[in-house]
């Protein structure tokens, strides 16, 4: 039992070390600007544009259901017009960045791990190396930069759509007064809430890109290996996002004086 | 010049190479033969630094590459071209993009016109003119290997490594690949290292043969002498018989 625990702990630590080495390589490459615009724009398109549908649907229905549920509770204490304020702050600080990141981890993280994993098992990564191209420069860095650009934009979009959806549900279905609803919403939502959401999205973008690329680059051989790498990329990215979100909330809260 | 000294490599508990020594001089065409799973491809990957040995050293032009990190190795790899067993073409790219990839990534800037001219010339050399816009999935096994070779020669390397270039191909296509290897060797004056277990191919393309057996270089020599060997192990492999007694 101890042996198994030691082995698993050893493997986990070795994996963490390898991930850190890859992150360092990516950082070196970032500062020496080895990335090409063509690769970067394609990745921004793939991560940002191609994720529109999942982000829009997630943002819209989260805003709507949160609005309805908040209204049901607030209506009991006659605080109907505070509904948008709660939804707005929740979307900016937590739900916008976290749900967007989870959806992108599912769609993009899986695709990145599968693509790079397949390249590894078909020796395409070895071919890159023989062609004097560092795999981190060519495969990881464009995805990392693209995720850092796309995630904050997708999160802002999700927040905006979530708030707009909530507003429409509150005004047109639940019959809340539009003026008071909007005024309260804006009164309690501050610029700093949006900034918190964007900072979290930036960090989540890095988490998704690094974990997914790492899982693809270290994928075990064979079709089963690619399948496992894909699953692990999504699971590990999602878990890391959820855990880090808690600590980010505490740290950022402290920094901006909310705690 | 490539020199391997006391090379050892294991995967887990399984030892693949044990104190392998070999030297390939510039301009030489070396063939490494041996049984499937005997470590030929592993040895080849050590020559270009794709694998790191557990012990021993690999020298390329008197430079020890076993102590180098991945970024230092990139400079050494500019001397090499490699043709993979499964061609390892980038399946998201066209043939032209695959072949032109090394030039597009070079520090020295090539204009799109220059790249396209050199791609056409490389494809011409491997007898695949006009295939620029095809995707790897649309090509046969033999064509994929030719495109892999075109990609390996486009930047005029000094050394070309071939990992089982004729495996899985019919005899006619295998013969054409052999002729191509000879043509590339003679026209570009490159050092060639070919890993194969195809005896016909080994006899034709090599001017020196190394046989890997029981994790070591068991025998080596010029093709005429090597293929006339009376050693039971060598004969068994050359004649392709399951029982060594049948060769005596």
Tally of individual helices of chain A: 9
Q: Order of helices and strands of chain B, N to C?
A: EEEHEEHEHHHEHEHEEHH
Distance between the termini of chain A: 43 Å
How many strands of chain B?
10
Let me know the average pLDDT of chain A. Answer: 91
Q: What does the radius of gyration of chain A come to?
A: 21 Å
What is the CATH H-level superfamily of the domain at 1-79 and 198-248 in chain B? P-loop containing nucleotide triphosphate hydrolases
State the total count of DSSP E strands of chain A. 0
Any idea what the CATH architecture of the domain at 1-79 and 198-248 in chain B is? 3-Layer(aba) Sandwich
Describe the largest sheet of chain B.
6 strands, mixed
Q: Roughly how much helix do the residues of chain A carry, as a percent range?
A: over 70%
Low-confidence blocks of residues of chain B = none
Number of separate structural domains of chain A? 1
Series of secondary-structure elements of chain A, N-terminal to C-terminal? HHHHHHHHH
Low-confidence segments of chain A: none
Keywords:
heterodimer; A: 259 residues; mainly alpha; 0% strand; B: 248 residues; alpha/beta; Rossmann fold; six-stranded mixed β-sheet; four-stranded antiparallel β-sheet; 37% helix
How do the helices and strands line up, and which of them pair or pack?
The complex is a heterodimer of chains A (259) and B (248).
Chain A (H helix, E strand, L loop, with lengths): L1 H30 L5 H11 L4 H25 L6 H39 L2 H7 L4 H39 L4 H11 L2 H27 L5 H33 L4
Chain B lengths: L1 E10 L2 E11 L4 E6 L5 H8 L7 E6 L2 E2 L5 H8 L2 E4 L11 H11 L6 H14 L15 H13 L5 E5 L7 H18 L2 E5 L3 H7 L2 E6 L2 E6 L1 H5 L4 H8 L9
Parallel strand pairs in B: 3-8, 3-9, 6-7, 7-8
Antiparallel strand pairs in B: 1-2, 1-4, 4-5, 9-10
């Amino acid at each position: 039992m101890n042996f198994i625990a030691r082995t698993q702990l050893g493997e986990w630590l070795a994996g963490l070390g390898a991930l850190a080495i890859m992150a360092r390589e990516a950082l070196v490459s970032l500062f020496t600007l080895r990335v090409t615009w063509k690769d970067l724009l394609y990745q921004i398109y793939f991560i940002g544009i191609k994720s529109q549908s999942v982000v829009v649907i997630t943002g819209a229905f989260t805003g709507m259901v949160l609005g309805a549920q908040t209204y049901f509770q607030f209506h009991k204490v006659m605080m109907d017009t505070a509904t948008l304020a709660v939804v707005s702050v929740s979307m900016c600080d937590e739900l916008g960045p976290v749900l967007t990141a989870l959806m992108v981890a599912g769609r993009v993280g899986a695709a990145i791990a599968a693509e790079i994993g397949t390249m590894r098992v078909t020796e395409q990564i070895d071919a890159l190396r023989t062609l004097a191209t560092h795999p981190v420069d060519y495969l990881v860095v464009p995805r990392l930069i693209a995720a850092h650009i796309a995630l904050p934009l997708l999160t802002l979009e999700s927040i905006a759509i979530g708030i707009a959806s909530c507003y429409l549900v509150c005004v047109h279905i639940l019959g809340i007064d539009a003026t008071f609803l909007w005024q309260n919403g804006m009164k309690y939502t501050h610029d700093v809430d949006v900034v918190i959401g964007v900072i979290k999205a930036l960090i989540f973008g890095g988490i998704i890109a690094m974990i997914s690329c790492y899982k693809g680059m270290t994928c075990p051989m064979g079709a089963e290996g690619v399948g496992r790498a894909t699953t692990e990329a999504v699971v590990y990215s999602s878990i890391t996002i959820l855990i880090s979100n808690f600590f980010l909330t505490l740290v950022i809260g402290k920094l901006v004086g909310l705690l | 010049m490539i020199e391997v000294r006391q090379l050892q490599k294991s995967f887990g508990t399984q030892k693949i190479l044990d104190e392998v020594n070999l030297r390939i001089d510039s301009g030489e065409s070396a063939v490494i033969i041996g049984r499937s799973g005997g470590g030929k491809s592993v040895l080849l990957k050590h020559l270009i630094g794709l694998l790191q040995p557990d012990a021993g050293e690999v020298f390329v032009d008197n430079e020890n590459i076993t102590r180098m990190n991945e970024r230092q190795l990139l400079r050494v790899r500019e001397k090499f071209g490699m043709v993979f067993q499964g061609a390892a073409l980038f399946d998201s790219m066209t043939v032209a993009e695959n072949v032109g990839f090394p030039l597009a990534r070079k520090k020295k800037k090539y204009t799109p016109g220059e790249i396209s001219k050199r791609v056409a010339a490389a494809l011409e050399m491997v007898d695949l003119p006009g295939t620029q816009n095809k995707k790897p999935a649309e090509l046969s096994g033999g064509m994929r290997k030719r495109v892999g070779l075109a990609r390996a020669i486009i930047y005029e390397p000094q050394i070309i490594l071939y990992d089982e270039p004729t495996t899985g191909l019919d005899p006619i296509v295998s013969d054409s690949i052999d002729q191509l290897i000879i043509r590339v060797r003679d026209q570009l004056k490159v050092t060639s290292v070919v890993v194969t277990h195809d005896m016909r191919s080994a006899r034709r393309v090599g001017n020196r043969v190394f046989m890997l057996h029981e994790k070591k270089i068991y025998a080596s020599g010029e093709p005429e002498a090597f293929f006339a060997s009376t050693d039971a192990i060598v004969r068994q492999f050359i004649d392709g018989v399951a029982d060594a007694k049948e060769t005596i």
